[in-house]
Amino acid sequence: MEIVRDPGQFDIIVTCNLFGDIISDLGAQLAGGLGLAPSGNIHPGKTSLFEPVHGSAPNIAGKGIANPLGSVLTSAMMLEFLGWKPEAAALRTAARIALRENYVTPDLGGDKGTAQVGDWLAAKSVESLNRQH
Asked: What is the spatial distance between Cα 125 and Cα 17, in angstroms, rounded to a whole number?
């Protein structure tokens, strides 16, 4: 209940996978929805798993309307974990700009398709990295 009442008090929550799934779904709703939420099952020194919270969404497969932001933000989480901080920051910056400029898929109120948003995010990420060098 505390995560709903005052989510800002938590930086990291360590739990087993089952409760982690439940808490991450709840947290995703508090942070903008399942379509945006990254997830990582992190095991320092061992194999870690990174995936968007929303899952594979088979009901919209092949329709070109899937929101790529959760996957992009998950990639940023993984890159940061691996020590690729500038690249992770570039992906997060691109996602922030997409949300600010409403360059998003229909689930977020936009009118762009999956590939359109994905290509745009890739281009913005490259621009961001080029500005850093």
From this structure: 31
Q: What is the pTM of this model?
A: 0.83
User: Residues 98, 124: contact at Cβ < 8 Å?
Assistant: yes
Report the distance separating Cα 127 and Cα 129, nearest Å.
5
Q: Max alpha carbon distance in the chain (Å)?
A: 45
Is the pLDDT confidence value at 35 over 90?
no
Closest by alpha carbon to 69, among 48, 80, 85, 53? 53
Buried/exposed code over 92-103 (b: 16+ C-beta within 10 A; e: otherwise): bbbbebbeeeeb
What number does CATH give the domain 2-132? 3.40.718.10
Query: How far apart, in whole angstroms, are the C-alpha atoms of residue 118 and residue 104?
Result: 9
pLDDT tens per residue across span 113-125? 999 999 999 999 9
Q: So where are the chain's domains? A: 2-132
Structure tokens at 46: 């061992």
